[in-house]
Amino acid sequence: MPSETVPSETMPSENLRTERLELRPVRDEDVDRILEYRNLPAVTRWLLTTEVDAASLRAAWRRAAENPDDHSVAVTLDGLVIGTVSLTVLDGMGQPDMPPRTEADLGYTFDPAYGGRGYATEAVTAMVAYAFDRLGVRRITAGCFADNLASVRILEKVGMRREQHGVGDSWHAELGWVDGYTYAMLAGDRRE
User: Fold this and answer.
1) Is residue 2 part of a domain?
2) Domain containing residue 113: CATH number
3) Into how many domains does the chain fold?
4) Which end of the chain is less congested by CB atoms within 10 angstroms, N or C?
5) For the purposes of burial, counting CB atoms within 10 Å of the CB of 169, is it exposed (0-12), middle (13-18) or buried (19 or more)?
6) Which residue did the predictor score with more confidence, 71 or 190?
7) What SS3 state is found at 35?
8) Residue 28 lies in a domain
9) Domain residue limits at 144
10) Considering only CA atoms, which of 126, 143, 137 is closest in space to residue 20?
11) Does pTM surpass 0.70?
12) How big is the chain by its Cα radius of gyration, in Å?
């Protein structure tokens, strides 16, 4: 099967690079590697969908690749996929005459074997910069379960502010109703 990637109009002409990482389109051959960590209990504990199979995940990434507003990437360290960062550009809340495609939704999943070294923060910071500087969005939001302290730390290190604490507002397939946080950042909030 040929490798499928995100169409060039939805990604920068070259892969994004940080000090230690490369962020690039997800390829079909990445799916098995992503599943190695994606379905670990330490990861699924913090995801709405607790387990996915290869066919479903591959189909989801292919749909993302066809969506010009989806800018999701694989995060690689020395060529190995260690995580993914999703970034989807959205229309705002539908107010009259509101400019389209000024909002973005951010998410991420990383292999816990690479946790605690700042890789997720580095990758998320790069995607936030890409969203503001290259895509021209004005506001990015992200959500996490309140008990997911690692995710809370990432969002706060990136400079996002907690705007909501939803008590019992998030349904988890295994945990039931749990608290959720919503974080956000405006383009003008960025620390240089």
Assistant:
1) no
2) 3.40.630.30
3) 1
4) C
5) middle
6) 71
7) helix
8) yes
9) 8-189
10) 126
11) yes
12) 16
